[in-house]
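G., the chain you wanted modeled:
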Amino acid sequence: MSFGKGPRVLDENGIAMTATEESRDVDPTGIVSDVKTAEETTESAVEGIVIVLSITSDIAYRVNSYQDFLLTWVHLLFRS
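Predicted structure as tokens:
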């Protein structure tokens, strides 16, 4: 039985499957399984980290701007 091209991975039952570009393959029992390659998993993790960092950066910028705004008004109020 041919497994096709690409790296072989084992499913939860220990049956060898081929990781394809579409991340879908049929194991020898005929069951279609979703298989994520290491590259796809890494890409997903990096995308998640970038999203979290951009949200955190945006929140920090807004808090800092808000603090500057409040400090300016407090300074103006007590200066008078």
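The chain has two domains: 1-35, 37-80.

Shout if anything looks off.
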